[in-house]
Structures are given as structure tokens and as C-alpha cells.
Amino acid sequence: xxxxxxxxxxxxxxxxxxxxxxxxxxxxxxxxxxxxxxxxxxxxxxxxxxxxxxxxxxxxxxxxxxxxxxxxxxxxxxxxxxxxxxxxxxxxxxxxxxxxxxxxxxxxxxxxxxxxxxxxxxxxxxxxxxxxxxxxxxxxxxxxxxxxxxxxxxxxxxxxxxxxxxxxxxxxxxxxxxxxxxxxxxxxxxxxxxxxxxxxxxxxxxxxxxxxxxxxxxxxxxxxxxxxxxxxxxxxxxxxxxxxxxxxxxxxxxxxxxxxxxxxxxxxxxxxxxxxxxxxxxxxxxxxxxxxxxxxxxxxxxxxxxxxxxxxxxxxxxxxxxxxxxxxxxxxxxxxxxxxxxxxxxxxxxxxxxxxxxxxxxxxxxxxxxxxxxxxxxxxxxxxxxxxxxxxxxxxxxxxxxx
Length: 403
Known about the structure:
Helices cover 41% and strands 15% of the residues. By secondary structure, the chain is an alpha+beta fold.
């Protein structure tokens, strides 16, 4: 969206009012908890931080924005508390959710939401009409398939404005079935190696713009804190980072769409990106953006009728021979190819992708979700012979000699 200077002021008022209502509600509940009082209900909270607050001289300016924006801010706070309680009690799966925190006007992302009750409207000329803000100029990325139920207005750190709509669609986007299935091994030198031998070189968008980002960060550090020049320098840095993120996201969208269209099933390894982000390779890991790429594969596979599965992160895909199933010793990162005693020569990444494909197919065929082990492998002759000392060795278990 491209709001006029006057509309930017009105949007800033709406962002600020929503933030104040959210913080007031959070403060009330924290004070009630510290005083040993009962939990403030959703209805009581809305009454105190919106209805009664508008009547007070300190919060009379809340009436300058749409009431729906304030109500949705309280709804966001209630959702944050419900998610926190569900996480603490164990009802919510995944990582633990922290308690709600106060919002700041210095946050990189500011957002407000309008529902149908606010009577926002998409006009015939393509403009978006918002209550108490006006008609905003919009560049549409796609046409809406149905009437939107809500719209979220977002302002990012680069001072860009976006409108995100919630719509319902019954359109069947299932793609015609294909025969091929693929396993994907993600890496740093090659962003993705497919089980068919295809290697996708890592673009390294952040590394390529490191010199420009360094220059902008140095210029920012020289500006006096609180000055207008510093504010302009902050926006320049934010726009440079946004350009990197947008380029990476666009590239990942194109690659993920191609993979989903060409394969009926996609299998990837469940990497612990959070843990890898704490190692010496952290910058390269974050630059790769594995988590965002796999998330794209997952939701696009569900949209287009494809199969998507993650292989256990502890599965030894790299050191297992894709030909015979033997699991070797751990290898250093500089070992890019290796030979198996069975006679097979492997490219490290292609072999891992083949193992991910085999493990994903085995897991997907087991309807009880049991762990599927690789088939039995004949032992090498050097391991199949009897050793003279093996028959004479004993160990003591609870005072009993065991042969």
C-alpha cells in the first residue's frame, strides 16, 4: 500500500492506540496476578481498557480511531494468554510459549486488524477504504477469490505498508499425479541436493550484500542518537535487509513450487535449525533459510495434493550406504565423497538424499507410524569369524557369572 502523508499519520494513530490498549490490558492482568486477585475475564478487560478508558481524560483520544482496531488488540492479548496457558499445561504441542510482553513503539513491525464489523471495503477502482483513515492506494499481488472477512494492515521496519486479507476459497488446486518422488538433503555449499542427483547451489544472498550492509551499519553508528539523520540511516539499513529477505523469499518460492509440481512426494530431513544457529556456522545457516523453505514445501504440498514428510533428525542419512545399508563412522565436513566396503562409491550429499528418500518412503508406507529399520545386511567376512578371546570373556551381573 502507498498511503499519503495524512493517511500515514492516521495509521500511526491507529497503531499507537492499539498498542496502548494491549499494554493496558496486560498491565491490569499482571497487577491482578501480583495482588492475588482472580483472573480478569475477557469481557471485563475489554470494558475497562476500552469503554471506561474512553471516558477518562487520560485516554479520551482512543475515540479517534476505529473501535474495531481496539477490540482486536484485546483479542490478540486474550489469544496470547490462551496460548501461554495451553503451553504451560502441556496442551499445546511444540516449543514452549512465553507469557505476553509489552509492545513498544520501537518494534520493527506494527500491525492493526479490521474485521467486517468495521465495514472496510475494497472499491471498484482498486482502492482500500478503511474507517477513519480513508481510501488507500493499493498495488494488488493477486485478485481476491471472495469477499475478505478481515484485513491486517502492517508497517515494517523499512516503512513499507502491506494489507493482508483473510478469504475463503473452495477452489480445488490439486495437481495431476506424477510418478516421481524425491528426497532432499539441505546444506550450505549446495542449498539442496535432490535424490535424482540435481544440485542447487546456495545463492548466499546475505553474504553477497555483506559489504553494502557493513557500509550502511558503519554510517548508522556514526550518527548521533536521537537525531533525524540517525532515523534516516536506520531506515536505510532496514531497507537493505528487507531487500535481502525479499530476494531470498522469492527464490525459495520459485524453487519450492518447481519441486512440488514435478514430484508426487517430497521428503526432507528434520533439521534442528535452532541448534545449528548457535554454532560457528550460524550466519551461513540463517542465510540459507532452511526453515522457511521446508515450510513452503509443506503448505504447497498440502495445497496441491502432494505428500510431504520429514525424516527423523537422528537418522544417519550421511554415513549410511544407500546401496547396502551399512552405517559407517562419523565423517568430517570436508569429506565430500567416500567408499563403502561393499564397493559402492558415494557422493556425500547425493547419498544422503537417497537415504532420506528411502526412509521417507518406508515411514510413509507404515500406517502405524512405527520406526522402520533398514533391512538385514550380511556381515563382512572380517566380522563374521569367531575370535579366540570372545568365548572366554565373562562379566558379573548381580553376583552371577555370565558366559
